[in-house]
Amino acid sequence: MVSSTEYGSHAWELLLTVDHQHEGVEKEFLLHVTGDLHVGGLMLKLVEQIKVAQDWSDYAFWWEQKKCWLLKTHWTLDKCGVQADAKLIFTTQHKMLRLRLPNMKTVRLKVSFSSMVFRAVSDICKMLNIRRSEELSLLKQSEGTLKKKKKKDKNSKEPATEDILNLCNSPVSSGLPANPGLYSKTMTPIYDPVSGSPASSTITWFSDNSLTEQNCSILALSHPTCSPETLAEMYQPRTLADKAKLNAGWLDSSRSLMEQGVLEEDQLLLRFKYYTFFDLNPKYDAVRINQIYEQARWAILLEEIDCTEEEMLIFAALQAYHVSKLSLSSETQDSICESEVDEVEAALSNLEVTLEGGNKSNILEDITDIPKLADNLKLVRPKKLALKAIKTYWFVFRDTSISYFKNKEFAQGEPIEKLNLKGCEVVPDVNVAAKKFGIKLLIPVADGMNEVYLRCDNEDQYARWMAACVLASKGRTMADSSYQPEVQKILSFLQMKNRTMCSQAASEPENVDMKPECFVSPRYTKKFKSKQLTARILEAHQNVSQMSLVEAKLRFIQAWQSLPEFGLSYYIVRFKGSKKDDVLGVSYNRLIRIDMATGDPITTWRFSNMKQWNVNWEIRQVAIEFDQNVSIAFTCLSADCKIIHEYIGGYIFLSTRSKDHNETLDEELFHKLTGGQE
C-alpha cells in the first residue's frame, strides 16, 4: 500500500492505455495522479512506467469519451477536465491513411491525425507537389454514392497492391515537418540536364526514391481511362438529389481526422473543393494541373456535370488526344519546354477565377468613354403552348445594363426595356454545327427569375456579347481588363466546337486503337454505335491535334469552366417559411436556389452583396443578410450545415489571395471565416 501522505489527500488513480507494438509489454498502466499535474508531466510519468527505449515524441493523449486530443501539455488535468473515469489512450499522432486522388489512383501515406484537417491537407499537398492546398480538402465517401453490388463492396478497400502508391517513407509520413523544398522561395525552376526543360518538382522531390519515375507518372501524367464496364459500375448521379450526395461528406477543416471518426488505414478522397484555381503555372504545377484535369474528366464521364453532345465530343477528343500522345510519344515525362510555356500563357490567365472585390488589378476606367456594344440581335420571348416569339431589335450594352429599341433610329429615345444584368445568371445556348448562338439570361426580380433569350448571328458577335454579359453579372463593365481575355476564351472554345474541317486530316489519330466508349459518358455510349462515336471524336480531334500535352489539359479545364454548371456544389435545404425542399447551389461567387423538381433556378444571391452570415448551432440554421434588406435562412437536410458555412467562408477567404503574398497563407483568417462557434 502507498500512504496517502506520499501522494497527497487529493491523489486519485487514472488508467492509461498505451498504443504500441512491443510484444510482451503491458498496454495498460494505473498511475496515481493529482488534478494539478500537467499533461506533459503525465506523459513523463507514463513513459517512465513503460520502460521501453524508443522515440515517444510523436505520441499524445487521445481522450476516447470526449473524442479530443490533449495537445496542450502545459495544461493541468483539472483544467482539461480529466477525472478518474477518463479513458486516455497514449497513441501516435501520425498514422497511415489511404487517399484516393482525383485521377482515381490511391496513395498510402502517414498523416497527422491530431492536426486540423486544413493543416493536414497542406502537409499532404506538399508531399504530392500540389501548390495552393487551400483549394483542396478531404471527402468521406457517403454510403449512398457506393454501388450496392456485393463484388464491388468486397473490393472497396483497393486490395490490389499495384494500384496503391506507398509514400510512407517521405518526410511528412515520418512525422517530421513538411519539407518546404517543393516551394522554391525564388520560384526558380530546376532544369532537366538531359532535355534542358524544367524538371517537374515531383521528380525533384522523389529523386531519392527508387520509384521516382513511377511516382511522377502516377501523379503528373494522364493514363488511359478505365473500361466501359468499370465506368458503368461507378456511381452516376441522375438527379439533383443524387448530386447533393456527392458533397455531403466533406470533413470539417477546423477539426482533426481523429475527432471526425477517421481511423488508421481508412480511405478518404482528396479533391479540389473550391473551384478557384489560382496562379496555375506549368513550370511548377505539373501534378496540380493533371489532377484538376482528372477531376474534371471524371466529373464529365460520370455525368456529375451536364454538357451538350457537341461539348462531350470536344472533351472526348481532348482525352483521346492525351491517350494517343502518351502511347505514340517516346517521352515519358510531363515536362514542358519554354516554347510550350509561352503557348499556354494566354490560357493561364483565363483559368484564374476570383470573387468580385478580390485583389485583382483593374485598368482605370475612363469615365468619359465607357465602352459599349450596339448591334441587331434577336429577342426570344417564351410563349404559352411551347411557342416562341422571335423578333429583331437594336440592342445597346452599356455599363452593366442592356437596353433594346425598335431599331437603330429609335436608339436616342426611351428604350422598350432596360435590363440590369448585375447578379443575373448567364447560360450559353450554343450549337455551332447548327449555327445557333444563344445567350440565356436569368435576371433576378422580386418574385424569382426573369428569363430573357438573346440570339446572335455569328461567333464573333456572340463572343463579344457573351463576354459582356458574364462580366456584367459580376458587376464589371467592358472597361475591365478581363473583357478581352474573356472574348478570346469564348472564341477559342467555339473554334474547338467548330466541325467544319480541313480536307487534309491528320493521320496520327487514325493510327490509334481507340475505344470511344472510354471517352464519353454512358448516356452517349447508348445513343451512338462505336464506329459512329469514333468517327465523330476523330472529326472533333482535328481542332485540337496541334496542341501540346499541357495545353490540351489546360484547354480541357477551360472548356470545363465554360459549362453552365461548373463550380456548383449542391445541397438539399429547407428555406425558412417554405413547405417544400429546395436545392441550394453553392458557387465561388453566389448562392442559387433551385427547384428540385424542374432543376430551374429560382433566385440568385451574390456574395458581393452579402453583409453577414451566421449559424444558429442549436437548430442548425444558416442565416444570411444581403444588401437592400434581403435576408434568407435555411436548414440543410443532405449534410451538416457546417459544410455550407465553411463553403461560404472558404470562398470569401480565397478571394483575398494575391500573388504578392506568394506562398504565405493566413490560416488564422481561414478558421475565423469558416470555423464557426458551436
TrEMBL record:
Residues 378-474 form the PH domain. The keyword Cytoplasm does not apply. It comes from the Eukaryota. GO terms for biological process: cell-matrix adhesion; integrin-mediated signaling pathway. One of its GO terms (cellular component) is focal adhesion. InterPro entries: Band_41_domain, FERM_2, FERM_central, FERM_CS, Kindlin/fermitin, Kindlin_2_N, PH-like_dom_sf, PH_domain. Belongs to the kindlin family. This is FERM1 protein. The lineage of its organism: Eukaryota, Metazoa, Chordata, Craniata, Vertebrata.
